[in-house]
Amino acid sequence: MNHPAFLTSDEERVLARVDEMAEEMFDFLAHLIRIPTVNPPGENYAECAAFVEERLLSFGYEVTRFTAIESLAHSARYPRVNVVGRFARCGPGRTLHVSAHVDVVPAGTGWTVEPFSGLIRERKIFGRGAAGAKAGLAASLYAVEALRRTHVAFDGVIEVSATVDGESGGEAGMGYLVDAGVVRAGQTDHVLIATACGVERLCFSPRHEPLRERLVEVPAEGSALVILPAAEVPMEIRLVRMMDRAIRSVLVRAPECVVGPASSECAHVERSGVRECLLYGPGRFELARQPDEHCHLEDVVAGCKVLALALLRTLREDEGDSPTRIFRTEATH
What we know:
- The chain is of the alpha/beta class.
- It contains eight helices and twelve strands.
């Protein structure tokens, strides 16, 4: 439920559009899950890249492929193909990069459903990646599409990337985009990394610069999330404020801020010099990489709404985040 007092008329239209696109978004996510991008060794990356590229092009992005041919992991059989879509609006402004890795860990044992079926049952979608970055990629891509289809105006650029090898260090994925200068300080203002988090959570990497001196407990690889006390949340970061407000608007509750195990993708963003990097995704951390991995469909929708509001507000609002803003809308095509 969305609290109308927290929303402008434009924002209400954007969230209504997300509801209208829900079945289309579920179909996209199911198709992603059906492409078994298992890492190791890095299967079906080219097929997945082609699928994401087609959807980005149909949504009006300028699309570029970045193939990490220099990577030791790259081969003709297992090419390391990344796809980046650039979506610009009215004029110069901030650049916000949203990224999700498309690779998944091997299925393993213990499943009661086919792990790459994309099965939808009892308002849940099942499959490897359903609770992880594939759900985050679907929510992110359709969040931007909700802005496009409602013709809301914002200045600046949104980039969406589908990267490889997130489960194995990300050198040929986000690391390659950083080395290529796609994500870099002075060009990129904010980065959102799709992850298994939970629709009501904001997740920080323990490497996050504002947290380094504050953290008492740092989660180890594979450990549970650590709750971040409210006093330690770096609200001076614009993206954190916008995500906080978006979660409050969509879920009508304060977010739970957590610190997850170290993220290789965040580490690559950090060496790029970009200071604002946050992790978010509708799939739950507790279900990722488990047998019968799944995500509730209502969480995919809610996560998409959170992202749509956060993206719009991050690119639209003035430096003081003033509530007394004048919003512009594009003429309907």
